[in-house]
Amino acid sequence: MKGICFRKTCPGPSGNEGRRPARRGAAAVIVLALFLMFSSIGLALIHLTQISLHAGRAGKNLTVLDILAENGVKQEFGNLSDVLAAQPFPLPLDETRAEAWLSDPAAHAGEIIETALGRRTPTSSSGGWEAQTWKAESEFSLRAARPQGSFFEAEFLVAVTSRSAIDNLKATRRARLEAALDIAAGNLPLSRFPVLLDRAAGGGNPPEPPSVEGLEIDPGPGRAHLARALVTEERLLPVSAIPSMERALQVKLLTPRNLTPTLLRRVLGLEESPDPVPEGVYLIRDDPGLGGVYVQGDLRELVLGVEEDAQVLCFRGVGSEWTLKFSPRRNRTELTGPEGREVFNTLPQAVVIVDGGIEALGGGRPDGSGGLRLCSDEEIPSILKGVKLTIVSTGPVTIASHLIHQGVTWERGIPSIKENGSELVIFSGGTGLSAPGGPEGGLFVGGDAPQELKIQAELVSTGAGFALKGPARTVYLLGALQASEIRLGAGRLKVHLDPGPADGDDSAASELRTARPVLLVLSLKPRAWSEDE
Amino acid sequence: MGNTKGFSLVESLLSLAFSLIIILAGLELFGVSRDFFLRLRSGSEDRRAALAALDKLESDIGRAGRFLAVPVGLGLLDGLDAGEGGLKIEGAEEELALLRDIEPGQRRIEVVDASGIKIGREVVLGDGTGAQVFRVDAVEDDTFSIDPAAGAFYARETSRLFLLTRVEYALDAAAGIIRRKENGGGGQPLLESVRLFEASYDEGPNTAFARLALRTKEKKIYERHMFPKNMSRAFRK
Q1: Is A189 helix (H, G, I), strand (E, B) or coil?
Q2: What is the largest CA-CA distance in chain B?
Q3: Is there a contact between B66 and A9 if contact means CB atoms under 8 Å apart?
Q4: Between chain B's N and C termini, which has fewer beta carbons within 10 Å?
Q5: Do the chains contact at A146 and B158, CB–CB below 8 Å?
Q6: Residues B114, B143 contacting (CB under 8 angstroms)
Q7: Which chain A residues contact residue B62 at CB under 8 A?
Q8: Which pLDDT band, with edges at 50, 70 and 90, does A407 fall under?
Q9: Which pLDDT score, from 0 to 100, does residue A17 have?
Q10: What is the DSSP string of A462-473?
């Protein structure tokens, strides 16, 4: 036997002959084998640990890629918001272009969105940190276009996608945000602009925008780009509230110049003559029913109030008083004045045209004699639920107390709006009739008004614009303001846009539209988020 | 002579004994290492399974309320609801392209492709202001019947129709299994040997929280805070 083990211990004379010096030491072989075995086990364990590490690293990388992709979407969406905030809205449009867009918005979708953003689409951005990068892109597609007469609203779907990567890693991840971008173009309702400074609608030099400290605008979600006073150099405020005047007077007017004293006297039921209309309050009545109220001359007070289910308007001139009550529920109207009391089983048009100024406009309570007493401190509702009242004046209007709608409560300056369907539109300088000896219009907050005045209205003023008089005070406006000038002095104006009045076919606020076609981005709102799964 | 002398029997026995001791020690060491490795692997697998379950939960929560801003805002759907019984997640699975306007009272809806719609599934129809949830009663080609009937007019251009997906997570405490049920189907086991499963959702900061523990690891609790992006108020306004 020529075994390799224990050769030295083999007895016999030939033991010395079989010895091979090069193969001695079986123990070394065993030790080597054991060493090999343990090394293999150790290496296998180390290898398994490496697999574990790789798996853990891959998981970590995927998480990092997800975060990068999310960053890309957020950055791109933030860029879009910044682009909107930097755009000088409202963007003027020429008539031809506006008409072409209005006739076929879908055919001009690309042009509309690129005009709104002021840049080519799709837009893109990229970013990263060291080996980690992302690329994001926004694509725009027209989802729906809604014509609204002289303007249209277009809803664009914005698909923001971002893809992330890490250098030397094949895997990438994607995140996607779908958003809605609403655009309106054409002759827009003024109430779409939270605060509009029309520098061409004043009488004198173009005014400066109000200070940022004094003006605070909350335009609502998705409208951060409208949280500033929008400024226009071209006149956008209409010369007159023609649709409201036509409703009130029940005549068709192409321009206010058509309203001659003769026509006016006929409308008011007076004897036809070229003489001016005598001062007073007239409830217009015609075959179809009642029209609105026409006031000739200045009013010392116009007090609005709610009495049970009736809306009450109390007109006080110099030495005379008229009270108009109408109840939509009972379909009954009552006018009391120096000439007695009249009752009608129909409702008037809720439009008041004042060819003059209003020295004090505000909310009030019944005074016991059938009229209303102006309440300058009490926060009482003065506009009945469902009533859409428009007040148009030739001269200045001074707001003397709160103008609050039924069903709206204010808590710490923040209005809680419920579906009340009421509206108040005040357009000072909006009759289109010339004011004798002075600038037309002007909307003022009186020196005796409450320290914290609450107004829920759509305010429009040409001429002297909007101004706070007297000591510094805070005005909370739930609605919108468009004026030729905004002077706040040391006071503050906090505007909370109420988009409600602009919606609906019978909206009083939507009757007042820009004199020229413009483009405005109404909102940019995120809709849905999705990621690679 | 000295050079030719081999190991004696005693030397051989001693070396054999030493070799045996070394081999036995090596085997014992190997056994201990193997047990340790298996324990580590088992622990790692448990951990991975728990984390994978949380990943799946996070992925589902990411879809909560997706494209359902209006119905969630109107209170027609929860989007995400967590309670003692578990977790309910609602989201849109796919968009179905409407072929026509939907009139009030209408009970049939025609879409471009209805291949993904099955009887018993729910669809959500809505525009910017209103929404309605319907159950699919019958499917024929690319038309399907709904219950109840449409309650309002939905213009094709401004309305969107989505196939609703509902995912529910619940702990089968007796068996120690977290089950995941999709669209009313049978609950598939997501994670076994579970001792604890809790989930909550706080609407204020819009954060969801889940924690679970396994029977094999008494002290270890796996927790995760999640941000369901589509449930954010920004999407609902």
Answers
A1: strand
A2: 118
A3: no
A4: N
A5: yes
A6: yes
A7: 529-531, 533
A8: confident
A9: 52
A10: -BT-EEE-SS--
Paired tokens of B49: 């399974």
Cross-chain CB nearest to B237 (options A178, A221, A530): A221
A506: nearest Cα among A405, A389, A384, A383:
A389
CB A72 within 8 A of CB A64: no
Whether B9 sits inside 8 A of A143 (CB atoms) is no
Per DSSP, the three-state class of A338 is coil
How far does the CA of residue A35 sit from the closest CA of chain B (Å)?
10
Q: At what angle do helices B9-63 and A26-86 cross, to 10 degrees?
A: 10
Q: Does B235 touch chain A (CB under 8 A)?
A: yes
Most B CBs within 10 A among A10, A19, A23, A41, hence the mutation to make, goes to A41
Cβ contact, residue pair B6, A7, below 8 Å? yes
pTM of the shown model: 0.82
Q: Do B6 and A531 touch (CB under 8 A)?
A: no
Q: With an 8 Å Cβ cutoff, are B157 and A145 in contact?
A: yes
Does residue B50 surpass a pLDDT of 80? yes
Q: How far apart are CA A363 and CA A303, in angstroms?
A: 5
Cα(A103)–Cα(A283) distance, rounded to whole angstroms?
40
Q: Which residue of B has its CA nearest to A24?
A: B6
Q: Which residues of A touch B30 (CB under 8 A)?
A: 38, 41
Cβ under 8 Å to A: B residues 65-104 = 66-67, 69, 92
Q: How many CB atoms lie within 10 A of CB A443?
A: 29
- A177-211 pLDDT, tens per residue? 999 999 999 999 999 999 999 988 877 677 777 77
Q: Is the pLDDT of residue B103 over 70?
A: yes
Structure tokens at A126: 């990229």
Give the pLDDT confidence score for residue A493 in this predicted structure: 95
* Residue B162 CB partners (closer than 8 Å, separation 6+): B67, B68, B92, B93, B94, B95, B96, B123, B124
* Higher local confidence (pLDDT), A27 or A486: A486
Higher-confidence position of A52 and A493: A493
B219 touches A at CB < 8 Å: no
Exposed, middle or buried by CB within 10 Å (0-12, 13-18, 19+), for A128? middle
For every residue of chain B, which 3-state class applies, written as one string? CHHHCCCCHHHHHHHHHHHHHHHHHHHHHHHHHHHHHHHHHHHHHHHHHHHHHHHHHHHHHHHCCCCCHHHHHCCCCCCEEEECCEEEEEEEEEEECECCCECCCCCEEEECCCCCCCCCCEEEEECCCCEEEEEEEEEECCEEEEECCCCCCECCCCCEEEEEEEEEEEEECCCCEEEEEECCCCCEEEECCEEEEEEEEECCCCEEEEEEEECCCCCCEEEEEECCHHHCHHHHC
Number of CB pairs, chain A paired with chain B, less than 8 A apart: 73
CA dist., res. A180 & res. A153, Å (int): 12
Asked whether the beta carbons of residue B7 and residue A526 sit closer than 8 angstroms, the reply is no
Mention every residue, 6+ apart, whose C-beta is less than 8 A from residue B173. Answer: none
Inspect the interface and report whether the beta carbons of B237 and A143 lie closer than 8 Å: no
Complex prediction ipTM: 0.75
